[in-house]
Design goal:
The chain has five helices and nine strands; from the N terminus they run ββββαβαβααββαβ. The protein is of the alpha+beta class and 157 residues long. It folds into two domains: 94 residues; 63 residues, no CATH class. The longest helix is centred in the C-terminal third of the chain and has 13 residues.
């Protein structure tokens, strides 16, 4: 969340974090005031081992963050926000795709070949909806997520 000159994280249990080193970098970007969607991660954040290390180091100030959206922004507005801060530390990678072939290339490159956790596909005219949505779809490897309790929707590869 950014309000005035203050940047902090609030998780779904209302735990507030102001101690992360990465927040100083984000503060210098002078983002507009908003509530931003982000994910904390450890190392590169792409492997199960990175996830377990995140759990072991969840109070560390040296965790990384990836902003991937904001309240009140459509998919297209989110794309524009991410494009404005492209390649800045603290922002999730993103791509604009126009067809299934382009999606398959991303799936193969990132999920299959580089073992990333997954991708989220969203329509450009969609807004965040807490819960399931036909306009936001997760793409993950089924064999990687078999023991995950909240994996009841999305596209499995």
């Amino acid at each position: 969340m950014k309000k005035d000159n203050n940047i902090y994280l609030v998780n779904k249990w209302n735990r507030i974090r102001k101690d992360l080193n990465i927040l100083d970098n984000i503060k210098r970007l002078n983002l507009p005031n908003n509530i931003y969607f982000c994910e904390l991660y450890y190392n590169e954040g792409k492997t199960k081992e990175d996830f377990y290390n995140l759990l072991r180091n969840k109070t560390s100030p040296n965790l990384n963050i990836a902003i991937w959206g904001a309240i009140g922004l459509s998919g297209k507005d989110t794309f524009n926000l991410l494009n404005k801060y492209k390649n800045k530390k603290g922002f999730a990678p993103y791509w604009e795709i126009n067809n299934r072939k382009e999606l398959n290339i991303l799936i193969n490159k990132y999920i299959i070949n580089n073992n990333y956790e997954g991708l989220i596909i969203r329509r450009e005219d969609s807004y965040f909806n807490n819960g399931k949505s036909k306009y936001w779809i997760k793409v993950k490897r089924k064999d990687r997520e078999l023991n995950y309790k909240n994996c009841s929707y999305g596209i499995w590869i």
